[in-house]
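Extended Data, panel c. Modelled sequence:
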Amino acid sequence: MPRINSPDVVSQVTQLHDAYEKALVANDVAALGAFFWDSPDVVRFGVNEQLYGAEALAEYRRTSAVVFTERRMVRRSVLALGEDVASVTSEYEQKVFGQPRHNRQSQVWVRFPEAGWKVVSAHVSNALVGPPQTASWEGYADQVAAALRLPLAAAHRTGVAQNLQRAAAIAAPLLAVDLPSTSEIAPVFVP
């Protein structure tokens, strides 16, 4: 079994991830490209793109502008598997086109003898759109908690808001189905 979380490996990858974040916020295209493996096998899934290979990734970086501001890391987890492989998963609060978002990012880093540490796979996902009638999901959570006279601890507020947001996104396609009023959704249970 590989050594888990070697302090040296965790430190190296954390420093690289910090440098990657700095380049991302600055939209330093050259620096961003240097963090990724120069291979047709590198993969990056973004919010709206699926990039396979270093050429596709480089083209994306050249033609895309940063659309977020006020990016702040909320949480990061670095998992080192042996001396040459690590994963980094992180969560961010930021504004996208002026709207607050909670985003997630995961990266797999591999240390190559000739090139050093490189990202071989990455995935980014944006938070879902907030509720239509309120300013934010946290505001909605506050209103519901008050209406139900249910205490909502500050430590749980963000998580509750995220769960409400995700539940709404899951339910949205079902609620969009137009059913006739005469439809029987499910048989009635009679004991």
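Residues 137-175 form one domain. This feature is highlighted in the accompanying rendering.
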